[in-house]
TrEMBL record, chains A, B:
<dbReference type="Pfam" id="PF00155">
    <property type="entry name" value="Aminotran_1_2"/>
</dbReference>
<dbReference type="InterPro" id="IPR000524">
    <property type="entry name" value="Tscrpt_reg_HTH_GntR"/>
</dbReference>
<keyword id="KW-0804">Transcription</keyword>
<keyword id="KW-0808">Transferase</keyword>
<dbReference type="GO" id="GO:0008483">
    <property type="term" value="F:transaminase activity"/>
</dbReference>
<comment type="similarity">
    <text>In the C-terminal section; belongs to the class-I pyridoxal-phosphate-dependent aminotransferase family.</text>
</comment>
<dbReference type="InterPro" id="IPR051446">
    <property type="entry name" value="HTH_trans_reg/aminotransferase"/>
</dbReference>
<protein>
    <submittedName>
        <fullName>PLP-dependent aminotransferase family protein</fullName>
    </submittedName>
</protein>
<keyword id="KW-0238">DNA-binding</keyword>
<dbReference type="GO" id="GO:0030170">
    <property type="term" value="F:pyridoxal phosphate binding"/>
</dbReference>
<feature type="domain" description="HTH gntR-type">
    <location>
        <begin position="22"/>
        <end position="90"/>
    </location>
</feature>
<dbReference type="InterPro" id="IPR015421">
    <property type="entry name" value="PyrdxlP-dep_Trfase_major"/>
</dbReference>
<keyword id="KW-0663">Pyridoxal phosphate</keyword>
<dbReference type="GO" id="GO:0003700">
    <property type="term" value="F:DNA-binding transcription factor activity"/>
</dbReference>
<dbReference type="InterPro" id="IPR015424">
    <property type="entry name" value="PyrdxlP-dep_Trfase"/>
</dbReference>
<dbReference type="InterPro" id="IPR015422">
    <property type="entry name" value="PyrdxlP-dep_Trfase_small"/>
</dbReference>
<dbReference type="InterPro" id="IPR036388">
    <property type="entry name" value="WH-like_DNA-bd_sf"/>
</dbReference>
C-alpha cells in the first residue's frame, strides 16, 4: 500500500478548483505552496504527474510544468529523474513539529514559533501537580474512567460560571479533552452533514476543520471590523443555520471583545433565527486591562452553549476543556464523547482543579507576562515595520496585523526561511482571503519577540522587493 | 430549547423498526428497556406521546400503551398525569456514573460494576508518577502541544514493537488519547461514509459506535466459535470492504486468541481483498499463560495497522493509546487528530513512558491478579450457576459466558436491581442477537467477584422463574 502520494483529483480538490487569476501557473504554485505551508499537504508527499494534475484541473500541461518549476525553485518541491516530484519545505529551517499542520516547535529549536498562541506552564504548576498527585490514590483503585469528568472538577467549573454571573450546577458541565474536543463533540451532536453553520471570519482554524469534517456548510460572516449583528441575524436566517460558532471574548485571531449590548443583540438574533450559539470562551479569563462583560449565556442560558479550556489560561499540556449547557444535552454529549476517547486524563483533571482553585494567582501571572509581551511586540513592530498596522487588544494572546499588501502567504514562506514560523491570514478564513493579515501571538519572552520581528522585517523586505509579475524563480 | 425529550420518529429510529415478534407490545417494551440499559436512551428523557410513537412505528396505539405500562411496572418508565412519561432506572440501585452508557461506578458505590473490564492502577504507579513529574520541567516551558506525541514516548512504543518482532521506527507511531481515539481517528481517515467495514461479532461496542458515527456500513462476521478465515475473506470481497477491524489477542469479549497460522491466513485474505486490517491489540501484553503469537503486522507491516493502549495494561485513568503504521499514514493521522483534540496529555504520556520501561513488573502484577480473579470467578460460577458455560480464556480480562436461555438483557436488568452491573451479549453485537451471552470481567478482587456471582445467581433465579409469556408486570 502506497499512501505517500496525492492523486491529481485529490490535489485538485484540495485546491478547490483553479483560481481565476493570471498568470495561472503562478497562482497554482502559490496555492500549492499554501497547502504545504499550512500542512494540508505534508512534506515528502509525492505529487501527481503533470499530465494528471493538468487533466484534473482542466488546464494545460505547460501550466502545471511551470507551476512545479516555480515551486522547485522556491524549495517547496523536489524532483528526481524517474522518481517524480514530491513536496518539500525550504532547507534547514523547519523544526520537526512544524511539518505537521499547526504543530509546534519545542523550545530549543532555532525557529521562533509564532504559529502557536499558547504560553508555558504557570509558576505554581509544580505545586498544583504535587497537590493533584496527592489526591490521585483516591482514584487509583478504580478503573479511571469517568466520561462526564471527575465530579470534583465538574463542581469547580460550575462554581466558576456561577461566580461569573451564570448560575450553573455540576450536572450542566461535561469535562472534555480540551476545547477543540468540546467543539468536535458539539458539532457531532448538534450538526448533521449538510447543515449550515455560521462562523466568524476570521476564526480559529481547528474549529473550521472540525466543521468541515462534520460535513457542515460553513457560512462565514466577517468580523474583521467587529460584529455586525444585523448581518449575523440575516446570515442565520437565510442559511437556516442551526448553529453559530462565535468567540465573543478576545476573538481569535482579531482580539476583539463583544460588548454587553452586542451580546444581548447577538442572542436576540439567534433567538429570532432559532439557532444555537456555541460560544468559545477560551480567552475569557484573560483580560489584560478592564473587565470582560457577563458571559453570553447570561442572555439565554439554554440557547448559548459555553466552551472553556485549560490550555490558554493554565497550560496547553493539560488536555482539559469543558462544555456548559443544559443537563439533558450534557447527557447526550457524554454518550457521544465515549465513542471519541471514553474519558479525560484523571491526573490532568486533578491538576486543572487545583489550578482553578488558585485562578487569581495564575491570572495575575499571565496578565503581567502577556502585557509585557504585547508591549514588546507592538514596540518592535512600530520601530521595524512601521507600515504594518494593528489595534493592540485588551486581552487574549495575539495581535492581528494588517500588512500594506496581500502577501501574507508569501511572507510566511519567507519568514520560515528566516527562522520564524507565523500563521498567514488565509489560515483563519474559509476561502483564500485575508492575504493582508497575519496573526502574531505575544506569549514568548519580550527579547524573543524582538528577534522574531527583526526576522519578519528581513523576510518582509525580501517579499516586498520581489517584482510582482516576474516569472521564475521569484515569489509573487 | 427543550432537548430532554425523544421524538416518536427518533425513538423509532433508535429501535430500528418494529421487531417481528409477538406479542408485539412485549418486544417493544424489551427493546426500549435495552436502549435505557445500554445508555442509548438516558434516564429522565421524556418519551413521545403514545400516539406519536404508534404512528412512527406503524403500530396501534394500544400496543404502545401496553408497552409503556409494562415498562412502568418494571421501573423503566415513570409517568405523571399531565406531564407525560419519561425513562427511568429501577429504584435505588444505580450509581451516578452508570446512567451514562458504558460509564462506570467508582469504588465505594454499592453496585458491583462488572460493566467495565479495566483494572486499578498498578503498585508502581506512584513511583512512575513521581518520575514523570520530575521530567515535567523539561516540557513546562513549551506550549505543551505535540500532536504526534512526545518524541520519547514514540521511541519507547516503537522499541516495544521491535522487541515483539515487528521492527518499528518512532515516526511510525502516533500517540493518541487512548485506543478508542486511535480507532476513531483511523476510521475518520480510512473510511468514507457508506464504506463497508468488516467487524467481528461480538466485538468491542465503542468501536462499533465509532464506525456507526463515521457512517460506515458494518459487515459483521461471527467469531463466537473462532475466526473462520474463509468466511472473513469472502465477506471482505463481497462487501468490497476497505477495512476490517479485528482483535486478534484475547478478543473482546470472547477471549479468543488467533494462532500464528490463522494470522498468516487472515493477512492473506486481506491482501486478496485489498483491504486494510486494523488490529486492536489492547490485550496483547496480557497472556495469563503461554505466549502470544507474533503481531499480525509481521505478516504485512503496511497493510496491518496496530492499535495499542495504556488503559488495560497500565491504567484506564491514563488516556493514552497509540497507532503503529507507515510514516506517511502517520502524517495524515496527525493532521486529522489535531481537529479532534490537538494533542494528548503531556504528564500522562510521561507516566506511560515510565511504566512501559517497567513493563515486566506491571505485567507480572497484572497476570497474578487476573489469574486469581479468573479462577475465583470461574469457581463461583461453577458452584452457583453450574448451567452457565464458558471457556476460561488464556489472557485478557473477561469471561464470555453462555446462558442456557436467551435472557441476557432481562438478566442485566434484574442484576442491576440486585446490585450488579453487567453487559448483556447484545451490547457487543451489531443487531439484537447474542441474547444468550454475558461478558463477565474478572478485574475486581476475588471476594467481590464471589459476591457478584451470588447476586447474579439471585437475579438469574428471578428471570428464570418468570413465566415466559405472562403479560404485565413480569419480565419476559
Amino acid at each position: 500500500m502506497n499512501t505517500q502520494y496525492v492523486s491529481g483529483l485529490h490535489l485538485a480538490r484540495l485546491l478547490a478548483g483553479p483560481p481565476d487569476e493570471r498568470p495561472y501557473y503562478a497562482a497554482l504554485a502559490r496555492e500549492i505552496r499554501r497547502l504545504v505551508l499550512d500542512g494540508r499537504l505534508p512534506a515528502r508527499v509525492r505529487l501527481p504527474a503533470e499530465r494528471d494534475l493538468a487533466a484534473a484541473l482542466g488546464v494545460s500541461r505547460t501550466t502545471v510544468t511551470a507551476a512545479y518549476d516555480r515551486l522547485r525553485d522556491q524549495g517547496f518541491v523536489e524532483s528526481r529523474q524517474g522518481a517524480g516530484s514530491w513536496t518539500a519545505l525550504p532547507s534547514g529551517t523547519v523544526p520537526p513539529g512544524a511539518r505537521f499542520g499547526m504543530s509546534h516547535a519545542w523550545p530549543g529549536s532555532e525557529v521562533i514559533d509564532l504559529g502557536c498562541a499558547a504560553p508555558s506552564a504557570p509558576r505554581i504548576f509544580p505545586e498544583a501537580v504535587a497537590a493533584a498527585v496527592a489526591r490521585l490514590p483516591e482514584y487509583e483503585a478504580g478503573p479511571g474512567y469517568e466520561p462526564a469528568g471527575l465530579a470534583v472538577l465538574r463542581a469547580t467549573v460550575a462554581a466558576r460560571y456561577t461566580e461569573r454571573g451564570l448560575p450553573t450546577r455540576p450536572d450542566q458541565i461535561v469535562i472534555t479533552s480540551g476545547a477543540q474536543q468540546a467543539c468536535t463533540l458539539l458539532f457531532q451532536v448538534l450538526v448533521e452533514s449538510g447543515d449550515a453553520v455560521l462562523a466568524e471570519r476570521p476564526t480559529y482554524p481547528h474549529a473550521l476543520d472540525a466543521l468541515r469534517r462534520r460535513g457542515a456548510r460553513v457560512v462565514p460572516v466577517g468580523v474583521d471590523a467587529g460584529w455586525d449583528i444585523e448581518l449575523i441575524g440575516s446570515g442565520l436566517r437565510q442559511a437556516a443555520a442551526r448553529v453559530a460558532y462565535v468567540i465573543p471574548d478576545f476573538q481569535n485571531p482579531t482580539g476583539r471583545l463583544l460588548d454587553d449590548a452586542g451580546r444581548a443583540a447577538l442572542v436576540a438574533a439567534a433567538q429570532d433565527a432559532d439557532a444555537l450559539l456555541v460560544a468559545d470562551e477560551t480567552f475569557t479569563e484573560l483580560p489584560l486591562a478592564g473587565s470582560v462583560p457577563r458571559p453570553l449565556a447570561v442572555h439565554d442560558p439554554a440557547r448559548v452553549i459555553c466552551v472553556g479550556s485549560a490550555a490558554k489560561l493554565l497550560w496547553g499540556g493539560l488536555r482539559i476543556g469543558w462544555i456548559r449547557t443544559t443537563a439533558p444535552l450534557v447527557r447526550r454529549l457524554v454518550l457521544a464523547r465515549e465513542s471519541f476517547d471514553i474519558a479525560s486524563s484523571v491526573l490532568d483533571q486533578l491538576i486543572t482543579d487545583e489550578l482553578l482553585h488558585r485562578i487569581d494567582e495564575v491570572r495575575a501571572e499571565r496578565v503581567e507576562w502577556l502585557t509585557r509581551g504585547r508591549d514588546a511586540l507592538t514596540a518592535a513592530l512600530g520601530e521595524l515595520l512601521p507600515d504594518w498596522t494593528f489595534t493592540a487588544p485588551a486581552g487574549g494572546m495575539s495581535l492581528w496585523v494588517r500588512l500594506p499588501a496581500p502577501v501574507a502567504t508569501d511572507l510566511a514562506a519567507a519568514a520560515l526561511r528566516h527562522g520564524v514560523r507565523v500563521m498567514p491570514g488565509p489560515v483563519f478564513g474559509t476561502e483564500g482571503v485575508l492575504e493582508d493579515r497575519l496573526r502574531l501571538p505575544f506569549v514568548l519572552p519580550p527579547e524573543t519577540l524582538r528577534t522574531a520581528v527583526e526576522r519578519l522585517a528581513a523576510a518582509y523586505r525580501e517579499v516586498e522587493s520581489a517584482p510582482a509579475a516576474r516569472p521564475l524563480p521569484a515569489y509573487v
